[in-house]
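Dear colleague,

Following up on yesterday's call, I've attached the two folding results inline so they're easy to grep. Please treat them as preliminary; we haven't cross-checked anything against experimental data yet. The first protein's sequence and structure tokens come first.
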Amino acid sequence: MGDNRGVVYLGPNKVEVQDIDDPKMQSPDGRKIEHGVILKVVSTNICGSDQHMVRGRTTAAPGLVLGHEITGEVFEIGSDVEMVSKGDLVSVPFNVACGRCRTCREQNSGVCLTVNPSRPGGAYGYVDMGGWIGGQSRYVLVPYADFNLLRFPDKAQAMARIRDLTMLTDILPTGFHGAVTAKVGVGSTVYIAGAGPVGLAAAASARILGAAVVMIGDMNPARLAHAKKVGFEPIDLTQHDRLGELIEHVVGIPEVDSFIDAVGFEAKGHGGAEQPAVILNQAMAVTRAAGAIGIPGLYVTEDPGAVDEAGKTGNLSLRFGQGWAKSQSLHTGQTPTLRYNRQLMQAILHGRLPIADIVNATVISLEDAAAGYADFDKGAAKKFVLDPHGLLGAAEAA
């Protein structure tokens, strides 16, 4: 090594690719570990959750190395690693998880109890998630490797589909989790709030789960056009603020079986003003009685840029009574990626889930990351994939 570079958050709306320290076999508090591996990063994606931090909407401190969507080649292994070998190509769940605590053993690895001293759940390169160094870099440490890593069975086959497989780290399992927790099944009518990458991944997941109609609502014309291009029903939220009527134009009634919130706390209402609870209230209004609402969109405990004092501590004004009265189920929280990533890998490898085309995966170099963040912030209908070593470009050219 000795040539590590990473995307560093420097303050609101400013990121820069800098020289960073090589990863070491140690935890954030400095303890030596032998259960980890160091990866040579093959691909690493820009996520909407990263964008929340870059906009200054969290308490992230300058100097944070970003990136939690990581696919890589095993470069170095600790002495307590048995299930992967040097040279293996692997997918890394964005959740840092020990595999040993109660929640991990229950397959709730998104809220591991041991990897973050401040609260349940850990992640790479993310505020308040345990201090683990991010993977928008050339090399990165992954702890508890035997538990966390998903090894691709055929390296050449995987590299041929790497633009798809890079989505296994976060957005595809997150979209799938949203669809599963919204109880999408054969014949379901589904509405998804947000036509960004997670919303599109949720739509792809709803389709593979058998939904009859998949609607995606947004105010961004480029994203709506792309959603239509890849086979989903776009709902233009700039038309008016009566979501039920917009849904009725498509399915004949002003309600759906399943609702997925893929936007989260930076939601905007009709007219463009920020209304962090608007989607959750819409969800309870248009989801049928005994229907289900999946909420993979991010909601934070602290938001310095909130529109009101309550929002700064994650308090939202919800009309919860309507959801209660309709016996709706709501499911929140970080996705336990390991619960889904192996099955989704199989769907990709066997041609069932062309997720790269669905989310419009766009490969750029690591050094161009700042430009990618800027374009994504402007609402580009793309999912930016960083290529730290030029390996994706080489794979696409082959």
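Below is the second protein, in the same order (sequence, then structure):
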Amino acid sequence: MMLKEQNGLQALETESTGKVFVRYLIPSLIGMFMMSINVVVDGIFVGHRFGEVALAGVNVAVPVFSIFIAVSLWIGIGGATLYSKSMGAKRYEEARSVFTHSLTLIFGLTLLLAAIAFGFRERLALFLGANDETMPYVMEYMSVLLACGFAITVQNAFSVFVRNDGNPTLSMISLLVTAGCNIVLNYVLLFVLDFGVAGSAWALVGGAVIGACVLFTHFMRKDSTLRFTKPRLSWKLARSTLAIGFPSFVAEIGIAVFTAGYNMAMVRWAGTVGVSAFSILNYVHSVMLMLFLGMGSAVQPLISYYRGAKLHARQKETIRIAVRTAFGAGLGIFIIGSVAADGIVSLFGTFAVEVRELAVTGIRLFFIAYLFMGVNFVMMTYFQATDQVRMATWITVAREMLLMVALLFTLPHMFGTTGIWLAIPLSELIVMLTVYAYVRRRSRATLPVRPTTG
């Protein structure tokens, strides 16, 4: 049952830390899950309406959507962290200035990037993998996203700020409405009005606009502090926003590196069978990834606010609860994967025996990563919210880039495809150990020095 909102941000100081964490956690998990299905919905409708070539075209253009999401999280998380810190310190005008600046920055940056990409959209399509067959569909879908994708970034960033202003439930509702409208609009534009593949992109943009309208109702709340002020550009504030949010941007980019790295490794060591087996796991992994991203999103407003309010005890208790929750969730997922791997593969259809066997083995091995992944996401968010950006960046760069790539190059030579499946689990474990060592060293450095006697 969803917990009721209580006096917005005031509840962060009056309710128990456990209750506050759950009140932010549940909407965040649901909202992140709904965000993850938007492009999947587009693919389902396009595939059923226009066939596999059109579906391939949409898949080629999907990285454009991923870039918009990455930019929105980059500025949204960075700005929202500064916003909550200012709110905790009761510097309300400063918080509003941060909010306005962040929305202005994300709007301007998205338009600039989109304008540049639109001018080179054919080259961009070829770079992303379009060929003569898929090019018309890629151009239809991509052109709409590049022209109107700013709506997606603004809505997503606005959702982060509303959550940080003590209204996580409305943020979740906005993402639910966005996904629901995307489904309805896809059906209407593709099957009723016959807009072509471009109609699916328009549905994605239209859902984002409607979701943003839902978020604007936050301004009607009596306890809402979120307000627009006169826009002004501050290079100092922009640098702080971009620096703090950079790990979130890298995390989104890391997803693309992970997919490409595993696909290339599987092609080399297991051929088409390996790629097919990995594609099954990757669909499951995308859902699990949203689960852990949701946990991080729930922690960020709380840690930022407590830091600004100098409520250090509540800050420490929150991160303890979050780490335990992340590890518990990871343990549960690992057990499910170990017991029900065959059933999970069956959810995606009937496959050749060699594909099924490799996918089942992959799930059982890869799911070991979830024992550590949630803890790493939570700690990354904690380091972001407490201005330890270098450590947050290390976590994001190491787990799906540096260590993963290095392990994909070495482990298969020793263990074959088993080494490929174990690359991410080992990467996550190594990163978690470095986080533990870092926290231990910081704790020892802050211990008071005992006076000597004699």
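For the second protein, one point worth flagging: Confidence is low (pLDDT under 50) at residues 1-7, 447-454.

Best wishes,
A.L.
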